[in-house]
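Hi both,

Apologies for the delay on this - the queue was longer than expected. I finally got the adenosine-5'-triphosphate-bound model through. Below you'll find the protein sequence and the ligand SMILES exactly as submitted, and right after that the structure tokens for the full complex including the ligand.
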Amino acid sequence: MTVSQLSCQPAKIELCHVTHLYVSSTRAFMAVKGIDLRVEEGEFICLVGPSGCGKTTILSLIAGLEHPTAGKVLIEGREVAGTSRKVGYMLQQDYLFNWQTIEENIFLGLDIQGIRSRETEEYALHLLEEMELGDVRKAYPHQLSGGMRQRVALVRTLACQPEILLLDEPFSALDYQTKLKLEDLIVATLRRHKKTAILVTHDLSEAIAMGDRLYILARNPGRINREIVVPAAIREPLPFPARNQEGFTELFNQVWREMEGLSDDA
Ligand SMILES: Nc1ncnc2c1ncn2[C@@H]1O[C@H](COP(=O)(O)OP(=O)(O)OP(=O)(O)O)[C@@H](O)[C@H]1O
Ligand SMILES: [Mg+2]
């Protein structure tokens, strides 16, 4: 493949001038305006910004749960026209079914998508082992800690083999130590399985430690204020050691200042 062919390849995810309004019978609210965003295959992107700046809206548009009022949302160059097996969406709450075992919970997505077979079940169980949860496959969610439950939810999402993973504040309910361990486990797992991911987080140090690139958003209306490429020395190690790399604190301070300087006016 030549360089010119490579440069013509569509991005894994692309938003072109996307504006989205939530319309009710009494009002129309502009959640995001003029969003341009590009994510290459295998990249790990973080969205940060104040509450209400449209982070979840952007994920919902990529997942095909919302259709943009204006502009285009593309996956591999094709316009998103609804939900797709290519995209896995993991929310802050784990939504595990308490009356089903962990094993049944992780097979649920396979059932919903009609792809349950011995092979896909084995793959799901393999992921469960990778997430160090092999011992609890017959347990029920209430017997697990918050961090374990989030890992189960991730296995359930990954079991359907999505190429793109959308993670909406998946660690925000966890204690700090669990969160740091889970960050490393998730980055290692996603790299091993060559997934493309977008993580929404309010934790700036988490965004810098996990992401290859950051988009900083402002609100009223939601828009991209700044894009930051994380330097290789911080990007390449796993999140925990990344925090000790030279330049991490400086980058944190830069992102912090950007966030402090955000105004509500376009
Ligand atoms: N279904 C909806 N109907 C009307 N307005 C909505 C709807 N969903 C979100 N909004 C509004 O759109 C804006 C963006 O919301 P969104 O949930 O995308 O923000 P967010 O950045 O994810 O915020 P947070 O950090 O609090 O999760 C907010 O002002 C919100 O009130
Ligand atoms: Mg949100």
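Main takeaway for now: The first helix runs from residue 3 to 8.

I'll put the files on the shared drive as well.

H.
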